[in-house]
Amino acid sequence: MKKISFLTLILFLIPPIILAAPPDEDHEKQVAIVIDDFGNGMKGTAEILSLPVPITAAIMPFLSTTEEDARLAHKNGHEVIVHLPMEPISGKKSWLGPGVITTDLSNEEVKKRVHAAIDDVPYAVGMNNHMGSKVTADERVMRIILEVCKERNLYYLDSKTTGKSVVPKLASELHVPYLENELFFDEQYTTSHIIKQANLLMTRIDQDNEIIAIGHVGIAGEKTASVLKQYVPLVEKKADTVTLSELLLEIDFTPKEQKT
User: Fold this and answer.
1) Higher confidence at residue 257 or residue 55?
2) How many CA atoms are closer than 13 Å to the CA of 148, on its beta-carbon side?
3) Residue whose C-alpha is closest to residue 141's, from 103, 97, 96
4) Residue 14 pLDDT more than 70?
């Protein structure tokens, strides 16, 4: 997982207030659960936002329940980030939503759209990409997006929809706090697959100190919510469930050459 300097984090990251009760015991390991695609009254929205642990809710801008979902997520103690629609290499335009960032836009239009998206999602402290396999591999466009994140004091989560992402390189160069997704729960919509991925998460907790996993509301939203409801108590026996802001704050950013 890529990391940035502690000083940069302090300058550009303000953690939210978490209302959920902490686990009964302290853990060295942390799991951040991110749920994408809020903002359009999607299936599983109420169930996910009712989970008794802090999640990071990635909310798409300019949709019918964008503001409602953001305010409810914040009220329930969850963290809010902008789920910015970005052009994929392939996929239906209907999946992207309004205000999409595409590689044929001018620099000025990209910047304008990113600012507008941030303005449309209340309580947002970060951003990740909705789809975006084409945009996140485009250095010109991603540089503008990350520059706006820096200007607006947002961190960036790379959802890793392509192995050609330029986010690590540019975020490090621009000193934008960023993290990378490590696991999708529901890229296949069956309950059996979601359970398989939840079990994979449990295995990875034994191997890694910090893990980020992404699920979705929508087609598989109710299934994902049901599986998470069952697995969250199991996760909490091994790790603390945290928001992305909390995960960033716990990382040791001291350069290796300065460590004794």
Assistant:
1) 55
2) 23
3) 103
4) no
